[in-house]
Amino acid sequence: MQANPATTGQEGRIGTVYLVGAGPGDPDLLTLRAARLLMSAGLVVHDGLVDPAILAMARSSARLVSVAKSRSRHTMKQEAICDLLVKEALAGNDVVRLKGGDPFVFGRGGEEAEACRAAGVPVEVVPGISSALGASAAAQIPLTHRDHASIVSFVAGQCKGLTDQDWSGLAGKGRTLVIFMGLATAAQISDKLIADGLTPEVPIAVIENATRKEMRVLRASLAGLADLVRDERVQSPALIVIGDVARAESGDTDNSIRALALEAQNMEIGQ
Questions:
Q1: Where is the Tetrapyrrole methylase domain (predicted)?
Q2: 213 classed as catalytic
Q3: Which residue range is the domain that position 108 belongs to?
């Protein structure tokens, strides 16, 4: 994408694009920088999975533009999103580009930063708590543990050429594999990892709506991943954790699958 930085609005002023991480869901987990930018923004371009409570922090006069994506439908293609950010900045508007998790972890923040720089638009990246870190912490699943895992890998489960990708060595003894956007391809993921030599009995956990009051933690074996997603009707946002760290605690009443719902009052500070 090319743009002419000489064509600007507001007497030649070029706005700044802020790529802001909204964290895993709970507004309390926003960084101070993210909260301040959001509350002062005149224009917020946001993903569909950003929690409504976070969007409600924007001032009443702010323009909110949704660029929600799903597996089968995009409100706006990525190229058009980049064009929108550059167009608004060249018109003299500061833009808060609000993304779930962290902008640079499967958030396409790199593409948007490149588009802004190519057009001469200032860009600032505001990190957020990655969904992988926020979800695992909320579920009390340590991604690393001296007894179980010293290596962590992040992969995208919804991507082109999934079956051709080499995931060998990413999961197994002493390792934790975290899969983003893996619900729709759960069966292929399970088959792929087992074909690569991972035992079908390896523990997995699916964390749905992490850090929110409707959060669920569902556990099964790798062989049962697809059935778990289907039978429990798991919806996005959800994360898949594979490895010994996902094993149910010894005190759980069911060691193969567990659903955990967090009540709103338990998430309030001071209780």
A1: 16-225
A2: no
A3: 15-128
